[in-house]
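Each lists chain and fold; for instance:
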Amino acid sequence: MFGRNKMTHDGTATVLKCDAVIGRGKAGGRGFKFSATPSTRWDLVLDVSPDGAPPFRAETSQRFAQYYGPNTGVTLRVRCNPEQQTVEVELSGDARFIPRLARRAKAEVDKEEREHLLQAPPGT
C-alpha cells in the first residue's frame, strides 16, 4: 500500500498495441458511466523510456475520450516505476487526446491553411 505502486520517473512511451475495450469490461462492473464526454477504455502495450533509467515494456489500461484514442506508433508522456515495471499515461495538456483542445488546434490549422490559400496566386 504505502508507496508500493508509486510512480518514480517521468518518461515517454511508444504504443506497440492498442485495443479498445467495448462493453462492460470485467464481470461485475458498474456498466456505462454517463458524462459530458463519453470515454472508451483502451488496453495498451508500451515501450517505456524513463528519464534516467533503462527502458522496459509494460501493459496498462487508460480511458480516452471517445473517438480520440491512440494509434500504434504514437508517443505518449508517462509516469512510471522502472523497478516495478508499471506505467501510467499522462494525458493532461495533450491536445491529441482532449476533445476541447483537439478542436481548438484543428481550428487553428484550418485557419492557417485558409490564409495560405487566400495569399497564393490563382491556379496554384
